[in-house]
Amino acid sequence: MRHIIKQVRVLSTTINHISVFGLIFMMFLTCGDIVMRMFSHPIPGTYEIVGFLGAVIVGFALAQTTIQKSHVAVEILIEKLSKPIRKAFFLVTQFLSLGLFVLITFEIIRYAGDMKRAGEVSLTLKIPYFPVLYGIAFSTGVVCLVLFVELLLVVNGKRDPWFSWQE
Protein backbone atom coordinates (compact mmCIF):
# COMPACT_ATOMS: atom_id res chain seq x y z
CA MET A 1 0.00 0.00 0.00
CA ARG A 2 2.92 2.35 0.69
CA HIS A 3 4.02 1.95 -2.93
CA ILE A 4 0.57 2.96 -4.17
CA ILE A 5 0.49 5.98 -1.84
CA LYS A 6 3.91 7.05 -3.09
CA GLN A 7 2.89 6.67 -6.75
CA VAL A 8 -0.32 8.65 -6.22
CA ARG A 9 1.66 11.38 -4.47
CA VAL A 10 4.24 11.50 -7.31
CA LEU A 11 1.51 11.64 -9.96
CA SER A 12 -0.30 14.38 -8.07
CA THR A 13 2.87 16.41 -7.62
CA THR A 14 3.77 16.02 -11.29
CA ILE A 15 0.47 17.33 -12.58
CA ASN A 16 0.64 20.11 -9.99
CA HIS A 17 3.99 21.15 -11.49
CA ILE A 18 2.26 21.42 -14.87
CA SER A 19 -0.22 23.74 -13.19
CA VAL A 20 2.59 25.85 -11.75
CA PHE A 21 4.35 26.12 -15.12
CA GLY A 22 1.02 27.09 -16.69
CA LEU A 23 0.64 29.89 -14.14
CA ILE A 24 4.18 31.14 -14.79
CA PHE A 25 3.62 31.06 -18.55
CA MET A 26 0.31 32.89 -18.12
CA MET A 27 2.07 35.60 -16.11
CA PHE A 28 4.78 36.10 -18.74
CA LEU A 29 2.28 36.05 -21.58
CA THR A 30 0.06 38.63 -19.89
CA CYS A 31 3.01 40.89 -19.05
CA GLY A 32 4.35 40.52 -22.58
CA ASP A 33 0.97 41.39 -24.04
CA ILE A 34 0.74 44.50 -21.85
CA VAL A 35 4.21 45.65 -22.92
CA MET A 36 3.48 44.94 -26.59
CA ARG A 37 0.20 46.88 -26.38
CA MET A 38 2.20 49.93 -25.33
CA PHE A 39 3.87 49.69 -28.76
CA SER A 40 0.53 49.00 -30.52
CA HIS A 41 1.43 45.34 -31.19
CA PRO A 42 -0.59 43.11 -28.84
CA ILE A 43 0.13 39.39 -28.85
CA PRO A 44 -2.66 37.75 -30.90
CA GLY A 45 -4.74 35.16 -29.05
CA THR A 46 -3.57 36.13 -25.57
CA TYR A 47 -7.12 36.06 -24.24
CA GLU A 48 -7.67 32.53 -25.61
CA ILE A 49 -4.38 31.19 -24.32
CA VAL A 50 -4.99 32.67 -20.88
CA GLY A 51 -8.42 31.00 -20.87
CA PHE A 52 -6.93 27.62 -21.75
CA LEU A 53 -4.18 28.05 -19.18
CA GLY A 54 -6.71 29.02 -16.50
CA ALA A 55 -8.52 25.73 -17.07
CA VAL A 56 -5.23 23.80 -16.94
CA ILE A 57 -4.07 25.61 -13.79
CA VAL A 58 -7.25 24.91 -11.85
CA GLY A 59 -7.77 21.39 -13.17
CA PHE A 60 -4.21 20.19 -12.69
CA ALA A 61 -3.97 21.58 -9.15
CA LEU A 62 -7.01 19.65 -7.87
CA ALA A 63 -5.27 16.41 -6.88
CA GLN A 64 -2.49 18.16 -4.94
CA THR A 65 -5.09 20.37 -3.26
CA THR A 66 -6.96 17.24 -2.20
CA ILE A 67 -3.82 15.63 -0.81
CA GLN A 68 -2.80 18.76 1.10
CA LYS A 69 -6.34 19.26 2.42
CA SER A 70 -6.19 22.83 1.10
CA HIS A 71 -9.90 22.92 0.34
CA VAL A 72 -12.63 24.20 2.60
CA ALA A 73 -13.43 21.90 5.51
CA VAL A 74 -15.73 22.17 8.49
CA GLU A 75 -13.31 20.89 11.11
CA ILE A 76 -14.78 22.79 14.05
CA LEU A 77 -17.98 20.73 13.94
CA ILE A 78 -16.28 17.43 13.13
CA GLU A 79 -13.76 17.67 15.99
CA LYS A 80 -16.58 17.78 18.55
CA LEU A 81 -18.02 14.43 17.39
CA SER A 82 -17.01 11.03 18.75
CA LYS A 83 -14.44 9.00 16.82
CA PRO A 84 -16.95 6.48 15.35
CA ILE A 85 -19.26 9.27 14.18
CA ARG A 86 -16.30 11.15 12.68
CA LYS A 87 -15.29 8.02 10.81
CA ALA A 88 -18.85 7.48 9.54
CA PHE A 89 -19.06 11.12 8.48
CA PHE A 90 -15.72 10.78 6.69
CA LEU A 91 -16.77 7.61 4.87
CA VAL A 92 -20.04 9.14 3.68
CA THR A 93 -18.45 12.38 2.50
CA GLN A 94 -15.51 10.55 0.91
CA PHE A 95 -17.82 8.15 -0.93
CA LEU A 96 -19.97 11.04 -2.18
CA SER A 97 -16.87 13.00 -3.23
CA LEU A 98 -15.50 9.99 -5.08
CA GLY A 99 -18.83 9.47 -6.83
CA LEU A 100 -18.98 13.13 -7.82
CA PHE A 101 -15.46 13.16 -9.24
CA VAL A 102 -16.02 9.90 -11.14
CA LEU A 103 -19.13 11.49 -12.69
CA ILE A 104 -17.22 14.71 -13.48
CA THR A 105 -14.40 12.72 -15.09
CA PHE A 106 -16.71 10.73 -17.34
CA GLU A 107 -18.75 13.79 -18.31
CA ILE A 108 -15.61 15.74 -19.24
CA ILE A 109 -14.41 12.80 -21.35
CA ARG A 110 -17.80 12.67 -23.07
CA TYR A 111 -17.81 16.43 -23.63
CA ALA A 112 -14.24 16.36 -25.00
CA GLY A 113 -15.28 13.65 -27.44
CA ASP A 114 -18.24 15.76 -28.56
CA MET A 115 -15.94 18.77 -29.04
CA LYS A 116 -13.49 16.65 -31.04
CA ARG A 117 -16.21 15.23 -33.30
CA ALA A 118 -17.67 18.70 -33.84
CA GLY A 119 -14.23 20.14 -34.63
CA GLU A 120 -14.64 22.97 -32.10
CA VAL A 121 -11.67 25.33 -32.02
CA SER A 122 -10.91 28.72 -30.49
CA LEU A 123 -11.81 31.74 -32.59
CA THR A 124 -8.48 33.50 -33.10
CA LEU A 125 -5.78 30.83 -32.94
CA LYS A 126 -7.95 27.87 -33.98
CA ILE A 127 -6.71 25.77 -31.05
CA PRO A 128 -8.91 22.69 -30.51
CA TYR A 129 -10.63 22.52 -27.13
CA PHE A 130 -10.62 18.75 -26.68
CA PRO A 131 -6.95 18.24 -25.65
CA VAL A 132 -7.40 20.63 -22.72
CA LEU A 133 -10.61 18.86 -21.74
CA TYR A 134 -8.92 15.45 -21.88
CA GLY A 135 -6.13 16.85 -19.68
CA ILE A 136 -8.65 18.07 -17.14
CA ALA A 137 -10.41 14.69 -17.26
CA PHE A 138 -7.07 13.03 -16.51
CA SER A 139 -6.58 15.40 -13.59
CA THR A 140 -10.03 14.68 -12.15
CA GLY A 141 -9.25 10.99 -12.60
CA VAL A 142 -6.18 11.49 -10.41
CA VAL A 143 -8.43 13.17 -7.82
CA CYS A 144 -10.59 10.02 -7.92
CA LEU A 145 -7.48 7.95 -7.29
CA VAL A 146 -6.51 10.16 -4.32
CA LEU A 147 -10.00 9.92 -2.83
CA PHE A 148 -10.11 6.14 -3.36
CA VAL A 149 -6.74 5.59 -1.67
CA GLU A 150 -7.81 7.75 1.27
CA LEU A 151 -11.05 5.77 1.53
CA LEU A 152 -9.21 2.43 1.47
CA LEU A 153 -6.72 3.52 4.12
CA VAL A 154 -9.47 4.60 6.52
CA VAL A 155 -11.69 1.57 5.85
CA ASN A 156 -8.74 -0.78 6.46
CA GLY A 157 -7.95 1.04 9.71
CA LYS A 158 -4.47 2.10 8.57
CA ARG A 159 -5.22 5.82 8.94
CA ASP A 160 -7.63 8.03 10.83
CA PRO A 161 -10.19 10.09 8.90
CA TRP A 162 -8.79 13.30 7.39
CA PHE A 163 -5.23 12.09 7.82
CA SER A 164 -2.26 14.01 6.48
CA TRP A 165 -0.41 12.46 3.53
CA GLN A 166 2.84 13.74 5.05
CA GLU A 167 2.65 11.21 7.91
Walk me through the structure.
With 167 residues, this protein is mostly helical. The chain has one domain. It contains five helices and no strands. Helix 4 packs antiparallel against helix 5. The protein is elongated. The model has no long low-confidence stretch (mean pLDDT 93).
Number of β-strand runs: 0
Measured by DSSP, the beta-strand proportion falls in: under 5%
Q: Return the string of H and E elements.
A: HHHHH
Oligomer state equals: single chain
Average pLDDT, all residues: 93
Which secondary-structure class do the elements indicate? mainly alpha
Radius of gyration, in Å, reads: 20 Å
Main sheet summary: none
General shape: elongated
Number of domains: 1
The number of helices is: 5
- The proportion of residues forming helix, as a percent range, comes to over 70%
Q: How widely separated are the two ends? A: 14 Å
Could you name the ranges where pLDDT drops below 50 across 5 or more consecutive residues? none
Give the key terms:
167 residues; elongated; 0% strand; single chain
Q: Could you give a quick summary of the protein structure above?
A:
The protein has 167 residues and is mostly helical. It contains five helices and no strands.
